[in-house]
Input
Amino acid sequence: MAMNKKRALPGVARLLKRIIPNKAAQKLPPEEWDFSNCPPLERYECFIWELSRDCEAIKNDVAKLRAGCQEKTFDAIWNQLGTRIFQSPRRRPLAIFYFCPEFPDRPYLCTGDQKERQRRINLVFGDDKKAAGRMLDGRFGLVPSDIGHRIKAALQTDSPVYRVSGSYELALISVDWKQPDPWLKEAFAQWLINNRPPDVETWPDRGAGVPNRKEAYRLKQIAARRLLKRMDWKAASELTATANDKAKPLFAEQSEWSEAEIKVAQWIRAQNDIHRPHTKQDSNKVF
Output
């Protein structure tokens, strides 16, 4: 009889191991890890929202920005803060979560319906074309604190371009607004030919590398990290494979789950380092 009990223990242990993660998963709403229903054009907002929910420095910055807002609604916060919060050496990410009272407590997909989320995006950044134009405005998010020194340095080089971080650069461009738009567009196209850095790989315009597909993959990585905080990778694979009739595991191999967890942790550390005040003077600044 004792032998039978000993033989039964491994099976019981395996059963408990499966039951315990499932209970943990029940406390984690699907919106916290299942981003498959996020509209493609909202994936960037969803990604930066969910990543920032795990960044203490960003959450502290958001709390400080909203401290003076009497009414805690999106429109009230937006009207009081506006896009001036992006015109700061803090290099805040261009995202709507700064104005959303649901952040950081609620997942992005629990922020109203798609129509309301799109209304907020359009209010802050305009439609897709306006948003693309704003991304070229160097005042938003990329102005370093030593901008004066950089301009002086750029004047002494052959190139008007100087790297800020990663693939982002600031450039000195002289614009004669008397010139018609077709001339300016042609001139800028030639400027791109002359100054695009050869060491930066551009986004493809089709296939798996298209930006919104990249964001979809990054959302899967965030989901993997959150699930692995509650259960092991096998339980997480089983959970994600049975989420709905068309579901499949987020990742097939343990190595992929581990890689996703490590990658997101690296992003979080990098964001915390960028947005954490490094001096007492910085900690007192809001803009």
Notes: The chain has two domains: 31-139+205-277+279-283, 147-195. The radius of gyration is 23 Å.
